[in-house]
Design a protein that fits this description.
- The chain is built from four helices and 14 strands.
- It is mainly beta.
- It has one domain: Beta Barrel (Porin).
- A 14-stranded antiparallel beta barrel has the order 1-2-3-4-5-6-7-8-9-10-11-12-13-14.
Length: about 280
Amino acid sequence: MKLILIILTCILLMPSNYSQQNPGARQIALSNSDIAQSDDVFSVFNNPAGIGQIRWREIGVFYSPEPFGLSELANAFAAYNEPFNFGSVAIGVMTYGFELYRESKVTIGFSYKNGDNIYFGTAINYQAVSIKNYGSKNSFLFDIGLLAYMTDDLRIGFSYKNITRSSYGFQGDELPVVLNSGLSYQIIKNCNVNIAIEKDIRFPVSPRFGIEYQVIKQLTIRTGYSKEPVRYSFGVGINISIFRFNYALLSHQQLGMTHQIGLIISFNGSITDEK
């Protein structure tokens, strides 16, 4: 009975689980309000337009070991960005679940800069699910994104996930179709304020808010809030040479608290979060 309940939990939480759809400890610490910031390698999952800002090689790994106290919901992501003259290309992978229910994804994203201030991006995702004794299914999903600098300090962003409304092929199991839009404003040096709205077509609109402040070169603090459902978040980033270690704590109104950790290696040699 316990295993059946865990499988049902995996299936029910998969579409709306915070870390499942929007990975990155930095992103989760900001309550995923960073759609217009999107300036690290995890942008390939969240807003593919953002990888165009990364004009250097970057590697990221993210791990959530026991979401809401259940190791069966563990999920991990990894991503790599490679810049070219024509734009940036990134590849990402994901795994979610346990031996009875396993979901995996491979993502390839591309972004290019149009003029001085606008980035366009797209991503293709191959996603598969395997349920013990029920077999496996797979599907291709397509995402698009846009990011524009209105001024040096103000950015706007937009993403549309699963524009093809793909599904695994089971009855009534359309994969999440999610629209995100928002802005990011640097109110003072090294301090960004993010405001975003997410709309999963199956659920109410979810407003998001986040603040990121780089206290010193080696330390960044973050906090965020989202509604529908109500979530609070907090996180820190430790920046050492080309390494950025990130931690996030997420509190869900119904499910409780969970922890996420991540590491990003930026081969630009910078220890700041400024792009």
